[in-house]
TrEMBL record:
It is a multi-pass membrane protein. GO terms for biological process: nitrite transport. Belongs to the FNT transporter (TC 1.A.16) family. It is found in: Membrane. Residues 323-342 are annotated as: Disordered. InterPro entries: Aquaporin-like, For/NO2_transpt. This is Formate/nitrite transporter. Residues 332-342 have a biased composition (Basic and acidic residues).
Amino acid sequence: MGLSSHSLICIYFKYQAFGYKACFPLLASVPPASAYFAVESSSMAYTPSTLKPEEVASLMVQYGVKKHRDRYESIFIKAFMAGAMLSFGGLLSEVLQGGAGGLNGSNPGIVKVLGGFVFPVGLVMIVLQGQELLTSNMMIFPMAVAKRAIPWWSLPVNWIIVFFGNLAGSLFFAAILVHYSGIVSAEPYASFIKTFAIHKAHDPQWHQIFLRGIGCNWLVSVAVWQAAAARDTISKIFAIWIPIWIFVACGFDHVVANMFSVPLGIMFGAPMTVNQYIGKSVIAAFLGNAIGALFVALPAVYFYLSDNHGSRLRDAETGEVLNEGSLSSNGGEKERSTTHIE
């Protein structure tokens, strides 16, 4: 239906006096175009894919407080699971290397690189499941103790519980799921398992295992640090994978990984006693791993947790710790918030 000239004149003057909403009531409920642009711009706000180093350092202290407050039986069970998870990666690595006899004779470097490539699946499962691994706690607890967020005695208590939990999980996996199951009892795997254990814990000198332990846990701590910095799962996997790949391919010594490979070799008949394994491999690798973790922990405390962070972290013992997103920018000023860990 057309509009008369009189109606058009009335609409024009009404528009001039009261705006378009008075002339067209149905349009009053339609939001302006600027609202759509606001929603679009907010959804496109940039979020960094990784946390800043100072945020990761604060997060490590937060992890230390949470682990300190956890129940002892819970810590042991998580450590048991971590020992088994790491053994899955160790078994996969030995299956690959042991089954590549021809390639090992012509190009042993490639076999080492391939064996190292598959091993990180164990640590990936541990990190994504939130289990307790001794070597990562060797970095986390010294940081929390250094900032007085937890008491000093929490460090040895946690390390002892996690050590025996990791050991129990590794021995269970080696004895029940590998040795008694017979999955690698045939050649060439049985011979390789014995040879691998001898090369790990019998042939090297004590100081060599100790030094290899330092290099190992330096890389493991870097992997755990990078995984904590990553925001999504795929990034966490890649952040873990590369450092662990390097340490296994290069032949460094990890005290928990050796809890699977060396006892498994003894079960298969490697010429080595339990006392020799403990005195030479366990103690040397443990001490080396503890020092290797400090190569990441102490510089992080010095660079990122000194001065203004210290006063807040000392209150973490009471349950107040830094929020993961506490360091945010607002008009050029840093904002801080706290949260309670359950």
